């Protein structure tokens, strides 16, 4: 008489070795052996099968690590042979891929729906989700971080599975159920069938973190909106705006170990990097929050270039956040216009340690690509924008274009007294090209990291560090060193930002905070009297459901 449950653990050895290296694969297999021992002690017989092993799999062996079809065929074969009580896929979709199903909602943005559902069905491979209505297998997945180079996270999940202990049924009778208001009817029916009750939290009016106390229940049913790579579930208001009903931080803080959850939410089971570092709990904007979540991925991937980009973007965002706080309250020139933010400084130092030479991350649009910058056309064809008279000398024969060569550069380097060569390069790149040329746009650079640190040093009264950072930046362009005195440090910082961040969207805020007025600004106009920033465009207000702004309301900063 059979006394043990049978569990089948399936994975792809080739993909595991490629992902973690031979040493990492060895560590993963060691963790699996410990799990098998723990399973045996609790009456579960666990077998590990490599779906790409030709000796074990014969003709069904996987040869393409990215093929969902091949993995579906292989899993069907091993399931038919072993007839396990349940099957567990080891690691994420970069090791055993999801099967791509055709999206039956034709007007949806997602044309392909990656899913593990086919692995849970006896039906043969198909991209038609309707073929998998009847689920015949118990299938789960122990995921690792997608594309990670370090197996630590996966090993931690394997060990957690090994330590799991069953609990009595009565522990799971207390439940939490949350539903978006528009799906209240179907959610009520499901809760009634599952729990024999009708207790249901509905969003709206439910708004995070009001469900936190109920998260202590060991059974959760959630039927809300979700988004790609978003850590929140949403309800929807009558006007189409979304209300945050539950966040991953709520779950991390209040849910108990051993909780069972059924989430009928778009992207509710999407596999992306979990938050590895929860030490920083500052109320940062979403841009920085996403970057905080992205940097651990770059560490896990051991991708130094991507890591430096993420750190630099976060340094820039933190610097801009403090700068905005300086200008926003009164929108006048602040008494102390300098930014010295510990977080921005630390990220700038870390980014520079990973950058080489005169590093610059550029967005370079391509014809027909998704990223488009029309600057070249607007400057060199339509001439709706152009380099100002502070920077350039116009061509005597045509005042709307820049004069050729060095003669076109008006701004002079304060150390050498010569037409600024950094500005010359920038003008050549943006303003002396054919109107059809797709010009690159600098997102972040090593120079900006030095400028963030030079400004912080100036704010702290560290003249030696200011000089060192400015000269480190100048050395990237082989410019003569600044002596730290002529011009004075503040003038040198302002000038260095003006030239080295040309056309990068920093100048207007610098002009406001340092009290600089352009000759083109009319004294009667609002920009001459206080900081006035462009409003969020009406098309963005109408298309973004999370912006609580009237489409035709003028910017409050410009009134």
Structure description:
- By secondary structure, the chain is an alpha/beta fold.
- The protein has 16 helices and 16 strands.
- The strands form six sheets. It has a four-stranded parallel sheet with strand order 2-1-3-6, sandwiched between helices. A four-stranded parallel sheet has the order 8-7-9-12, covered by helices on one side. Strands 4-5 form a two-stranded antiparallel sheet.
- Strand 1, helix 1 and strand 2 (44-50) form a beta-alpha-beta unit.
- Helix 1 (13-41) packs parallel to helix 4 and helix 12 packs antiparallel against helix 13 (463-475).
- The longest helix is centred in the N-terminal third of the chain and has 29 residues, at 13-41.
- The protein is elongated.
How would you sum up this structure in a few lines?
By secondary structure, the protein is α/β, with parallel strands linked by helices.
Q: How many structural domains are formed by the residues?
A: 4
The CA-CA distance between the termini, in Å, is 83 Å
Strand order of the largest sheet: 2-1-3-6
Share of β-strand residues:
5-15%
Give average pLDDT, whole number.
83
**Radius of gyration (Å):** 29 Å
Helix content: 25-40%
Question: What best-fitting shape do the alpha-carbon axes yield?
Answer: elongated
Q: What profile does the largest beta sheet have?
A: 4 strands, parallel
Number of helical segments with 4 or more residues: 16
Structural class: alpha/beta
